[in-house]
Amino acid sequence: MGVSCSRRRGFVPCCLEARSGLRIPETYDSEREILMSRPGAAASLPLPFELVVDDGIPMDNALHVFQATLLQELVIRVMKERGREDFYAAGNIFVYYSVEQARHVAKGGSYFRGPDFFFVQGVPPRPQPRTAWVAWEEGDRLPELIVELLSPSTESVDRNEKPQLYAGVFRTPEYYLYKMETGELEGFRLARGSYKPMLRNRHGRYESKVLGLELGLWHGLYREQKATWLRLFTPDGRLVPTDTEAQEQEKSLREAERQRAETERQRAETERQRADAAEAELKRLRALL
After folding, report:
1. What is the side-by-side strand order in the sheet with 117-121?
2. 42-98 tens-digit pLDDT
3. Dihedral through CA 105, CA 110, CA 114, CA 116, nearest 10?
4. What's the angle, vertex CA 20, arms to CA 16 and CA 25, rounded to 5?
């Protein structure tokens, strides 16, 4: 995901399931769509319409772009360190959960903004970047962790409407809301079909069962922007470094090792000189006898 403010969004027509109390999208009688609605069939047949993958509507501000990029970078780093490739971490792309919903969007129907960041596991990597998350092409897997970055234009939807979709249709286990402007972070866990507030641990962070990590706040510099960033921490409290931070840490470790080796060399040299001086003094004293 780049750092421009161009936002791919959408994914959800403003109509979920009957149980959510929102309008259900109209059904279609096309034989192809009926066939594609059957498990496994959709992945093997081309859609009878073109998927919308970009609406060109910009994000509210560049800091949100950087924050989503930061989360993606950190998750990818952790998963690679664990030797895992069966995951996907991204944001600002359409998430399609049904053919009917995809057609609704393609016809110009209303939709919610896509998650600012989401994580899915149990999916293989692809040689080409995904331009959208199409559930029926991904073994029907949907986001297991979602982070929404609140702004005045999105907060109401993120708090009131999207949770119905994420809980009722996606069954996303963990949902986080972060308001960068005020540094307010909230965590929710799915329980009995709805989201319940998570409790912070003694460090003031949320423990993610999905990631096996903690989510908390860190004030500092990222992409030359000083802000309070949502970061990941290991269970023992260590900050998960960005690639740049990891490189700097490795550089510092190498320098520390170089200095240690130099100190050891100087110590050995001092010991050698002391031994040489002692030997010379011993020879001098023997010569006097």
Report:
1. 87-90, 117-121, 145-149, 174-179, 184-191, 194-197
2. 555 678 788 888 776 666 789 999 999 999 999 999 999 999 999 999 998 899 999
3. 150
4. 30
CATH class assigned to 6-240: alpha beta
Question: How many angstroms separate the CA atoms of 101 and 10, rounded?
Answer: 11
Global pTM? 0.77
CB 10 within 8 A of CB 111: yes
8 A C-beta contact, residue 14 and residue 101: no
Q: Which residue from 193, 17, 190 is spatially nearest to 98, judged by alpha carbons?
A: 17
pLDDT digits (tens, 9 = 90+) for 107-129: 988 776 679 999 999 999 999 99
**In this predicted model, what pLDDT tens digit does every residue of 136-173 receive, in sequence order?**
999 999 999 999 999 998 899 999 999 999 999 999 99
Please give the Cα distance from 275 to 281 (Å, whole number). Answer: 10
Rg of the Cα trace of the chain? 27
Distance, CA of 109 to CA of 270 (rounded, Å): 80
- 121: which residues sit within 8 A by CB, 6+ positions away? 84, 86, 87, 88, 144, 210
HSE, side-chain direction, 13 A CA sphere, residue 71:
30
Measured CA to CA, the distance from residue 51 to residue 128 in angstroms comes to 17
CA distance 52 to 58: 16
CA distances from 3 to 63, 74, 90, 151, 154 (A): 9, 16, 13, 18, 20
